[in-house]
Amino acid sequence: xxxxxxxxxxxxxxxxxxxxxxxxxxxxxxxxxxxxxxxxxxxxxxxxxxxxxxxxxxxxxxxxxxxxxxxxxxxxxxxxxxxxxxxxxxxxxxxxxxxxxxxxxxxxxxxxxxxxxxxxxxxxxxxxxxxxxxxxxxxxxxxxxxxxxxxxxxxxxxxxxxxxxxxxxxxxxxxxxxxxxxxxxxxxxxxxxxxxxxxxxxxxxxxxxxxxxxxxxxxxxxxxxxxxxxxxxxxxxxxxxxxxxxxxxxxxxxxxxxxxxxxxxxxxxxxxxxxxxxxxxxxxxxxxxxxxxxxxxxxxxxxx
Length: 304
Fold this sequence. Notes:
Blueprint: H1 6-19, H2 22-31, H3 44-57, H4 63-73, H5 77-84, E1 92-99, H6 107-118, E2 126-131, E3 136-142, H7 143-152, E4 156-157, E5 160-167, H8 173-186, H9 189-192, E6 201-206, H10 214-221, E7 227-234, E8 241-249, H11 252-262, E9 266-267, E10 270-271, E11 273-276
Antiparallel strand pairs: 1-3, 1-5, 2-3, 4-5, 6-8, 6-11, 7-8, 9-10
């Protein structure tokens, strides 16, 4: 178990949840050499929490490796500071083995034989996928184990003759894409059924000019994709804008694009701030009327 503080754990989980769309989430799992079926949750938020908990309680991939993989595609100063407090990552490497056989009698026996050649324990070897024919096997294993396996250049694995062993990055691009497609389709099937996918994503928009209207907000965000709703938060007693609002984008992808291309951009002569909105509260708290600040879940809040 890592020595993450609760605040660090929440920061990593929320970053994955708010900054990764579904395909990127699965790419992240593939990069980490994780089985595609280890994350089974009801929502994308739960999936983000589960991947953090999984990496905390396993040695491969470790939470350090999770952070390294995240930072490779989504650089972030806050996560970099968390990573600096943890031991270095010993990454998993992905290796393709082609065996001269049409079928594999026992996957567990094959993994045990590969582990022996790589000088690793069987639970450190992850079977990511197989292809029929002269059977292609894709595995994830610690970097030093991959080095050992490749340098030993075995003629066989158990009862199977080895045709070739290659690192994933050495494979042709079309072969890499085929493996990625197989990986994505073999697990997390609930994502494709829409159980993980949020139908829309609500964004908080701060630092709005008092003159900005709902229509202006909708038109501004339409550059990033389809807008489900746009609303400037109005003070009920005065009828004046509170300087912030909410925009609901139809998809994760559109919400992420809005954050990427519109955050800090000028709207009505003011640079706006965009973030994922927190869940709505059942009973809004008072004292949240500061311009462009406060709880990101309230739409119309009275000062009374």
